[in-house]
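Morning run. Coffee first, then this:
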Amino acid sequence: MYELFDLYEKKKPEIRMDAGQLDIPPDSRIVEELRKYMDEFKYAPTSGLEELRGKIAEIHGVEASETVVVPGAKFGVAALLHGVKDVTLIAPHWPGYRHIAELNKANLHVIRTSLEHGWMPDEEFEVKGALVINYPNNPTGVVADKKFLEFLRESTRGLIVSDETYSDIYYDGKPASIIDLTFENCALVYSFSKTFSFPALRLGYVIAPRDVVKKVVEYIRATVTCVSPFIQRAAILALELKNEIGEKIRKTLHERVKVFSSTLGSCGFRFLEPRGAFYFFIDVEEDGTVFSRRLLDKGVSVFPGEFFGKYRTFIRASLTVPREKLVKAAKLFCEVARN
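And here it is:
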């Protein structure tokens, strides 16, 4: 996937709908906060600034000692899976989880789901080792309800790693969190990349029982030492503005969902309208890689479904362009499908 992203960076297609990198600029107040502390170049505590951890704890109703600041959600997942021998994923899934498991030489187990069953498991399955979940989901936009999360908790003996990067981006009621149900043997991972449009800052956090947090801290200590303090200072303000910014971004993205969905649906594409995140996982009923290349010839970039767990006839489109470009892109989707 990253090789294809690099290709798109060189080709510079007119309509970029490949990476999950929103075109919505970050809030100017947070940018100013970054500038304010730009001369703070000393090491920060390995687990994160006390003020930031306190704010995270306040938001989630946990103790500060049950939080740790990490350099991006991906790093948080990698730290939690370090040393784990078996990892179970629910497909379609973000390919980063697979890369982490393979780098750790873990045994990978995949539970496949289908569009016909709403991208949820439709039969009994076995979870081996740690289970990584991601709701709202990338790439399908599916949101897990409390009942399903309870079922997963009962079905899993190992650690549940819940990547809740898109928890602020929903269109039909706030999603349940894994830590709303139980804190035992569960870890929540959060990213500042999506809600706050700061992907390049590489900032996130993990909430977990103290013994799990301790392992994440040791992983940070052995690798990157800490997250830059000036970034953490800006994150404190970001969390104070979280509800306001979240409301704005949900409104913008929900409008995009409706616009893109109506045009695609009129052309006969099969997909499930996302209830969260900002992706469409679309069945193009042909080789998705070939379809992606044909779209690229028209000036539109997307990712083939193969990247998300061997869904050969699917593509993932990110709602990362303004309304007018979305309309144009949807029409080009239809044109490519007809030809």
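The two ends are 26 Å apart (CA to CA). Good start to the day.
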